[in-house]
Each structure stands twice: as structure tokens, then as C-alpha cells.
Amino acid sequence: MLRINEVILVEGRYDKNALSQVVDALILETGGFSIFNDRQKQKLLRTLAKERGLVVLTDSDGAGFVIRNFIRGCVDPSLVKHAYIPDIYGKERRKSAPSKEGKLGVEGMPPEILLKALLRAGVSASDVTEQREHITKADLYARGLSGGEGSAQRRRALLKTLDLPEKLTADGLLDVLNALMSREVFYDLPL
Fold it and tell me: What CATH number should be reported for the domain whose range is 2-127?
């Protein structure tokens, strides 16, 4: 399994699940077309793209290209890499019928094709054996950001300080913090 340094953006949770079996990376979902009206998520993508770079991996159907083109307009193109999956016709296992265009999406791609698409896009990858100390749920708890009295208020204050979306869950915050900073920097944050 490869660790991808950039943040990977996919359309939905089934795409995210399929990709997480192949790479160790921060994988975010657009939520389909809801990304068009979600200003906070757009801002988060811009922030993460500046910090780590962004890889867009959408389905090869019309909807995937509409989302991909939207991202081109809201995130600095110099910070974005585009990974493309081939047109393979068929139907995903969880669906009763093929998609409108009859093509498999990211979730239906074999792992080796997903990996090849990412590598062809020029992602920065390293072997997963290289370990970095991550911020954990226990760290959030220790800093009073989850599981205790007033933790929701402290978490909202931190989100505001870091200019992150206010509706980010504790798990979402954990993913973003690990993308933006080291564990040492996290412990140095004034709370």
C-alpha cells in the first residue's frame, strides 16, 4: 500500500471506500453536485490544496467531468492534479443496473487500475512503512476537543481559529489536522 501525500477528492463514500483499500491518504468526498453550493467545503479544498496539493479522481461519466471542471474553477489549477480512470463498461456490484452511461465508476475499478491512475497523475507517494506520529482521537480527548464537557465549544473555537468549516465533525477534524500539521504542532496550538 502506498501513502499518497496529496489530498484525494472523490465523488462519494463508495469511491472513498474503494480507494482506501488501495492507498493510505486523506480522501475527501465532494458529495456529488452538493459541492457546487458548499462554500465551506470549497474553502477547505483550497486550504488543503495549498498545504498538500489536491488530486481529483472522479468517475469518467458526464457528471464526473462536470464536478472535475467545477473544481478547476474553485481551486488554483497549479495545486491540482487530475487522475483519470478508463472507460470500462459494466455495473458495480452494489447496483441493480448499470449507470446511465453504462460505465464503471471509481468504486467499480479494480485496485490496480486506481493505483495506476494515481501514479500516472504524478502523485507524491511513499512506502507506507515510513511512519509519522499522527494525531489521534486520544489526543483530541486529551486537549479537550472531544468526549468531554465543553468539547464541542472548544472544537468550534479551534475550527474558527484554523478557518475550517464549522460543521466539521471530530473525525473530520482529525483527518484535516493530520493533513495540515504534525502531532507536535497540534500540541503547541493555543486552546
Answer: 3.40.1360.10
